[in-house]
Predict the structure.
Amino acid sequence: MCGIVGYIGEREAYPIVLEGLKRLEYRGYDSAGIALYDGQDIKLSKTKGKVMDLEARVDQEIETNGTVGIGHTRWATHGVPNDVNSHPHYSNSGDLVIIHNGIIENYESLKQELIKRGYIFKSDTDTEVLINLIEDVKKNENVKLGKAVQIALNQVIGAYAIAVFDKNKPNEIVVAKLGSPLAIGIGENEFFIASDATPFLEYTKKAIYLEDEEMAIVRRKKGVKIRKIKNDSLVAPYIQELQMNLEQIVKGGYEHFMLKEIYEQPHAIKDTYRGRLRAKQGIIKMSGIDDNIEKFLNANRIIVIACGTSWHAGLVAEYIFEDLARIPVEVEYASEFRYRNPIITEKDVVIAISQSGETADTLAAIKLAKSKGAFVFGVCNVVGSSIARETHAGAYTHAGPEIGVASTKAFTTQITVLTLIALKLAKEKGSISNSKFHLHLQELELIPSKVEQALKSDPHIKIVAETYKEAKNCLYLGRGFNFPVALEGALKLKEISYIHAEGYPAAEMKHGPIALIDEHMPVFVIATKKGHYEKVVSNIQEIKSRKGKIIGIVTEGDTDVKNLADHIIEVPETLEILTPLLTTIPLQLLSYHIAVLLDKNVDQPRNLAKSVTVE
Ligand code: AGP
């Protein structure tokens, strides 16, 4: 997620905007920039790196006087992290500057049209396209900045929180919001703009939070005028008195980053398929796959390499790829793969999965696979990370920064990307029917709202957590697509509550683990209606007959498991291959609540690092 900050008022803008960018550092970013207006001209400085690097660069490059300023911390989505791709971006004339948080899905087509009209582009970003679209509208329609922004945004598909400044209209900043957050701080003859209130909380506790498809003209003296982007209708501003303190705002009002990130999953999944999934047209657009489709279709097999939660996502991918695309898949722990002298050929396609893009074992395994001629495709969450740069091609998850050490939204967004790839390959191979393909696209589009639905069980899950927080050992069982989710649920509990837990294929119980079952053993069983449901129910009966405590993760409305289990947690119905995106939610919340009840350090568990960059 990018961070945006702006100021217009009577004070020097630079220190306010710079400090504001520092307040947004928690959002994670790879570059930063600032634009100031000194009454004559716009002065702009930006750099790859941290806000402190920007500060050093500003000292070298520009005068910092001026009472209007906008600043940005970039979390790259389009275009690798470098100085040119950093924000703010000028329009071709140099009269306009923009900062943007979000993704413009149709930026390529807009860019081609603008190039035909003589616009040139220095960066690879969608944001530079947007500011030149605004400039083009402003010139051709002969309208003011606010109107130009409104007309331009009605041509845009995607998500944005933007701030735009015109040096010929120095007493106003134009902002707009769709899908990304934007707050306006209301001071005395001064106004603040930011992704959240942290940059201006020390100056004012009065804030307006724009709603989606709203824009505002923020004028130095006249204040804030809000309009609907679609129809220009005026919106009465609702000024809130902020109650949260700084730390609470950084965590979005949640107690921990992990809980915030669990709740971000509907948005993160939607951002991940945004611009890729077009269910109505029956299209999946992924340039990394499109450009290398033959390699995938002609591959002898796909080898997935990853660690931890990413390995669990890879195991889900094995089931999905083989079921849909009929391509043989092997899933390897990167730490094992790199040392076991594996057989790799040019006919192999390797998919490396990593949230951080910096995991040493995964990076080493990639280099080994490349050295033996394999084509390596990366699925990472950090643009420009080592693994993203080492792989031949890739597809980013757009989960935004994941601060909590325990991976949550990275897991569901990885599965989203992998499902899109599997569906795309299956369509290309003709291994699934058109109708089945369309059905999966339509259902995938419903997943964010179904995750929202699954999250509503949170209060109930907290009660279940209270019941089992003293357990010394737990078992997690699942079958088929949900066997990897059982492994993931066990890992979540282990790493943040320090309770020993094991994930197992449900049918495997009778080959040993059932000896562990007694009245002290909670068994979390994923028993959704899809996929060998009856067999899982019989596994549950085996556990019950040995006095095991059963917590069933079931499809809404389930009664069979409800009659057998000590507790059930419901998730909405969906297609079998998409159930992992829903069944993992209660297991994430369960581990979170148990860890909180045990007073553990949820965001930074003992002995763990967010990214294991050493062996
Ligand atoms: C998961 O909750 C852990 N934080 C850990 O297993 C993690 O998934 C693993 O270290 C891999 O990290 P990566 O996805 O950044 O490569």
Summary: The first strand starts at residue 3 and ends at 8.
